[in-house]
Amino acid sequence: MVEMAQGLSLSTLTTSCSSGVYGSIPSWRKHFKLMKRGQITSATDRHYIWHQCMQRLFLTSNPNILRQRNFRVEAGWLFKGGGQGLEASCERSESANEDILIFFFQLDLATRVQYALNLEQYEIAQELRNKMTEVEAEVMRQQEAKRGSSSKSEAQDKAISIIRLRADLQSAIESEDYALAANLRDEISKLEAESLAASAKALAYENAQYSFRLGQKVRHKIFGYCAVICGMDPVCCESSSWREIAQVEKLSQGSSQPFYQVLVDVHADPNLLVAYVPEENLLALEQADKGRFDHPYISFLFYGMDSAGDFIPIKQLREKYNRPRYEVPIDPEDEEPHGDA
């Protein structure tokens, strides 16, 4: 998602995050004029954006949290090195957080378009629509690459290349150019391994089976904190450096299992906020929990809490992960007994 941000305006992202999805946007027209300023080209710019978004989202989503609980929230964790050893911080994920903030940015753009239409500012609405289309196209490209759509075509392309290289190998052997033949064999072996990995990734996404659902409250098996599912991948999609910090290779199922983006209750850990957790490290709650759960992202990712204590994902979030609407099962004990006819 970092690459996607390179095509977005620094001031656009910052002002979008400061306004919030809900409520009025009194100064949005003034902010819109800033959209064509310099593009994001450095890691410093990107880090600044996410730092600002984190602070602003936290305060605008629930300004009473800091006052009531006297918490000191550090947004800077996103860009510091991960903790060593098995601590909760080893699973926090900058890319997962960026993914959520980009999603918020899309929602905010859609709100701004509607606001412009309500004011009959059609020219501005069209410019915003164009920006939204540009962002959505890039997000779609990122999702296809992440979810294996591009992996399938990549595997097919590599298969064609392998066929061509084998023909070249045969020609090299026949001409007794054994040095070239050896190089071609190495290249074929490398392509075969890459093709197999791409095919496996595409297959994993097509046949993904998840034990948990969007909005479900879970508990971390090792660290014990309560969290809410807000995203999911059928396999680990994090970087090799993150995997090393999180010690993914030591998991019983390794990286070839579903991984979940989870929102961590700020009362459990105000500095963690977003974690990327393997399925084997999560537990479903044994009993419904309708207790308090605070997180700065809850208000724009979910409609509210259902009768079982889980959160109801907004339609756009379900569509993002292609997940069906979940209906809470009816408890027979809650049904009123029918009288005799």
Automatic annotation (TrEMBL):
Q: Which residues form the Hemimethylated DNA-binding domain?
A: 209-313
Q: Which SMART domains match?
A: YccV-like
Q: Which Gene3D superfamilies match?
A: Hemimethylated DNA-binding domain
**Pfam families linked:** UVR (PF02151), YccV-like (PF08755)
The protein's superkingdom reads Eukaryota
MF terms from GO for this chain are:
DNA binding
Q: Which residues form a coiled coil?
A: none
What is the name attached to this protein's record? Hemimethylated DNA-binding domain-containing protein
The record lists the organism as Lithocarpus litseifolius
